[in-house]
């Protein structure tokens, strides 16, 4: 019987398989950041262990870093200690680090692909749930906890039980104005936050194939929001073109050998998935969330749902609670919802293409009075590229705040946060209660919708302008 | 890791679905570099509300959390597990868990128990009607008992063995260091290095 893409990548990394035990899976790339690593390095120290493969490990500072005044010490002493701890650990264990201020610094899931470290067929892990992003290259990439971070540091492997596979096929062409973010928000609303639980999702179909690498990363990034272990897309010419010439991509004869192997990384025609979902791209429209989990989303043209309309009592109760937290009334058209903050950035939508989409909408327009807009590039390289293209001038002319690279308001571990009761349209990945600051209210949107919303002050698509 | 065999304690009913790890422990608490002190951060935003279930005196000292579906979704932060353990929980019962959270729990010796939604609901009701109700989570027998309910739960043999013995994964894996070295010799030469 044929094998899926996930089967092929998984099987190629099994170090040891024994009856009644999990497989031992080799890890090709381990990404490290300051938040989920300190206790893992401590564990190594306590046990007198070393990092087995520092040459397959890379660290960056992203979650805590301020996006202004990089030359000043981090004001929050606890954040500062955490960043300094990573620096000490990286130096002690011989791990390469991209610190704040370094031109290679950025969000862990932006720098891996940017450096060409993320390649098809690899296994990639990080103590961060959005590691699924790297699946866009046909890598098997998933988030792990701190105990597992320590395990990978010490052994370069992880005990794993092979997940099931799910195909999400998006047939046809995405309509004009509908983006990768709209697509994945619609998928999550359809299958639910637990729909992918226990599965590796493979995204397939014409609409997926037509996406750029940036768009594919946005889709795979949010696989975890559907509960999936990982998301993957088979590598193709788009993938190879993105990788060619990147600092860590193979060169010369090595490149040819790699591409020949990468081309074998597709699901066989006779392979069977454990579950299949089919979506018609033509039915998709700009999509936004109204609630407090990423599955609580609707097309922008709809209204805030009535909790009574949910047949399932658990969903009904969740909707009631969400409307109360979000300060929304059932029946309000989503386009009437006013925001005071717009955040563009994160590992979901902080890449160059996302910034271009925002600039295209903002060019010649102004951010509405009373709205603050933050544009935070995903990495210092993205920042430099945006500036080379003059995008920063467009943002500034529109009245947006152009910042340094980091996770920023996606999770509010740095000074960028919502105050209680404030409402944002955000290109990030989670609308959980308090995610962007205690009491803050988040609507997840695409970069294009974020930009249009900044202009009108209410949830809007560029076509509304 | 702390071993888990059989635990008997009182339950706290948490009647909410989709309790993500940002709720279990908000991001502000993740800045600590130590492994201790996370109990203060457990559900810290919700604990500001005096009516929140953990603030009710009848549930003080309870050690089994009885939660709604999709408990522990979202962020991979293991701090969520540490916070629950350091607060005093030994097991969480729910109809479904977030994948990474469940995995993290079994690495630390916090037992995630999956039971059907109706059984979880019945246990929640029992803990509400009589907060003194004792519940036994028996990993040896793969069974939850209490409030007149006996419910079997599934857990794979290997994870169960590891939890019963309190074994640390790294030590187990390092017994196979030769297999890892052999695998490394066969890796493709084009694979990237970070240095």
From TrEMBL, chain A:
Enzyme class: lyase
UniProt cofactor note: Binds 1 [4Fe-4S] cluster per subunit.
PROSITE patterns per record: ACONITASE_1, ACONITASE_2
MF-aspect GO terms: 3-isopropylmalate dehydratase activity; 4 iron, 4 sulfur cluster binding; metal ion binding
EC number(s) from the headed UniProt entry: 4.2.1.33
InterPro entries associated with the record: 3-IsopropMal_deHydase_lsu, Acnase/IPM_dHydase_lsu_aba_1/3, Acoase/IPM_deHydtase_lsu_aba, Aconitase_4Fe-4S_BS, Aconitase_4Fe-4S_dom, IPM_dehydratase_rel_enz, IPMI_cat
Binding residue positions for [4Fe-4S] cluster: 347, 407, 410
Gene3D superfamilies, per database record: Aconitase, domain 3
Domain named Aconitase/3-isopropylmalate dehydratase large subunit alpha/beta/alpha: residues: 7-457
Keywords: 4Fe-4S, Amino-acid biosynthesis, Branched-chain amino acid biosynthesis, Iron, Iron-sulfur, Leucine biosynthesis, Lyase, Metal-binding
HAMAP family in the record: LeuC_type1
Quaternary context: Heterodimer of LeuC and LeuD.
Protein name: 3-isopropylmalate dehydratase large subunit
Lineage, highest ranks first: Bacteria, Bacillati, Actinomycetota, Actinomycetes, Streptosporangiales
TrEMBL record, chain B:
Catalytic activity: (2R,3S)-3-isopropylmalate = (2S)-2-isopropylmalate
SUPFAM superfamilies to which the protein is assigned, alphabetical: LeuD/IlvD-like
Single Gene Ontology BP annotation: L-leucine biosynthetic process
MF GO annotations: 3-isopropylmalate dehydratase activity
Pfam families in the cross-refs: Aconitase_C
CDD domains in the cross-refs: IPMI_Swivel (cd01577)
Keyword entries, A-Z: Amino-acid biosynthesis, Branched-chain amino acid biosynthesis, Leucine biosynthesis, Lyase
This protein's pathway: Amino-acid biosynthesis; L-leucine biosynthesis; L-leucine from 3-methyl-2-oxobutanoate: step 2/4
Domain of life: Bacteria
Gene Ontology CC annotations of this record: 3-isopropylmalate dehydratase complex
EC id: 4.2.1.33
Database matches in InterPro entries: 3-IsopropMal_deHydase_ssu, Aconitase/3IPM_dehydase_swvl, AconitaseA/IPMdHydase_ssu_swvl, IPMI_Swivel, LeuD
Domain Aconitase A/isopropylmalate dehydratase small subunit swivel as annotated: residue spans: 1-117
Function statement: Catalyzes the isomerization between 2-isopropylmalate and 3-isopropylmalate, via the formation of 2-isopropylmaleate.
NCBIfam families in the record: leuD, PRK01641.1
PANTHER family cross-referenced by the UniProt entry: 3-ISOPROPYLMALATE DEHYDRATASE SMALL SUBUNIT, 3-ISOPROPYLMALATE DEHYDRATASE SMALL SUBUNIT 2-RELATED-RELATED
Subunit relationships: Heterodimer of LeuC and LeuD.
Family membership: Belongs to the LeuD family. LeuD type 1 subfamily.
Name of the featured protein: 3-isopropylmalate dehydratase small subunit
